[in-house]
Amino acid sequence: MKKGCKNNYFGTDEQRSCISFYDIILFPGVLFIGKYAVFLFSEIKDEDMAQPLAERLRPKTLDDYIGQKHLVGPGAVLRKMIDAGRISSFILWGPPGVGKTTLAQIIANKLETPFYTLSAVTSGVKDVREVIEKARNSRFFSQASPILFIDEIHRFSKSQQDSLLGAVETGVVTLIGATTENPSFEVIRPLLSRCQLYVLKSLEKEDLLELLHNALAKDVVLKEKKIELKETDAMLRFSGGDARKLLNILELVVEADADAGPVVITDEKVTERLQQNPLAYDKDGEMHYDIISAFIKSIRGSDPDGALYWLARMVEAGEDPAFIARRLVISAAEDIGLANPNALLLANAAFDAVMKIGWPEGRIPLAEATVYLATSPKSNSAYEGINSALELVRQTGNLPVPLHLRNAPTKLMKQLGYGKDYKYAHAYQGNFVQQQFLPDEVKGSRIWHPQHNAQEAKIKERMQSLWGERFKE
């Protein structure tokens, strides 16, 4: 370097003239001049390196937004509202990583209106009131209502949600809520009635592939590296339609091989880096209930393949085995019932076995019970019977027990007629005698109705032989 030159190799023309060009070796991004290493100009800044890939790629406009075409595509409902420059309060409901927060920020930027954000995880009623007061004061400087974005709004308590009602009702703020849980259960009805509800979907394969290619072509860090996206199936499968998870996986794989020259991404490499399948599953959330619902409905629908698939989803995701076993016991009584009474015995035995042996072997008795229940004949006559009985009780109230069915442990009770004319069934031929067992007001009511399966056909035949016309359908 020439005498008097500053250590700034690639600034102005004058500064560039300070370099003595000898022993020059050029590597991607680095120029070695003698014993000095000179880093060439790049778009990469320190703050870029510190940010996760998902944050660096967060879209700023609707044109860059990937997915949710039913909401923000050409002519879609939210797109029309945004283009018109006025939006009403709404709640975005969808799984993680599908663009709820990003969409709210894009809307705020597009409308150029004050944007306040609260996290339901860390904010209380006091925080809500302070933000509402700030929003009320900011109306002097903006015609449009300030936007209040609340992430994880389902975590707000009833009182916290109540504190929003007045401001949303009067337009002090335009509320945008984001939730991964069903708002029908987690958002109070008065607040839900003041908001539109928009459902966001998990990203499709085409959306995820577009996101991957954008990351490699546009990200200021990744585009400086040599990356070959050879296979994508594993990345797409593990991401589960979650854009953030997909980008995190990409970043993890790239960083793991950053010092090994060009990075070639294959399904095998992705699986190796992740070690295990990070299935999307929240034991306390919507996915938990959706999958157990699919499991039970597959059993009810006599599909052992479907039932085993949903069982495997729960096992792989680490669901509590006791929870699965309990649901099998319930299904055995509700859906198989009298069509195969052994189903309840086997389901209960599977429950006991799982509690004794634990994981991973516990999956085997659960699978046995699952297949047995799914392939058994079905009847919900006991389930329907108790529901009909409950409905009758609710309609008729506390009807008195007929005197002949009451016990008479005292002399006074006997004098009052308790137990009089009761017929002891075992004293009669065949251990049966016809008598009235329902209150007078509902005598003759039919509550249990046998269904059309071999086991209950035998039961129906026996009941008809005992009760005659009463059990003729």
Helix percent reads 40-55%
Beta-strand content estimate: 5-15%
Q: Compute the number of helices.
A: 22
**Rg calc:** 34 Å
- Cα distance spanning the termini: 106 Å
Low-confidence stretches: 1-44, 280-286
Structural class, judged by helices and strands?
alpha/beta
Query: What's the pLDDT, averaged over the residues?
Result: 79
Query: How many strands, which pairing sense, and closed or not: the largest β-sheet?
Result: 5 strands, parallel
Give the number of DSSP strands: 10
The neighbouring-strand order within the major sheet is 5-6-7-4-8
The coarse overall form would be extended
Could you walk me through the main structural features you see in this protein, from its secondary elements to its overall organization?
With 473 residues, this protein is an alpha/beta fold. It is built from 22 helices and 10 strands. The strands form 3 sheets. It has a 5-stranded parallel beta sheet with strand order 5-6-7-4-8, with helices on both faces. The protein has a 3-stranded antiparallel beta sheet with strand order 1-2-3, with no helix packed on it. A two-stranded parallel ribbon has the order 9-10. α8 (158-170) links the parallel β6 (147-151) and β7. The longest helix has 16 residues, at 321-336. The radius of gyration is 34 Å and the shape is extended. The termini are far apart.
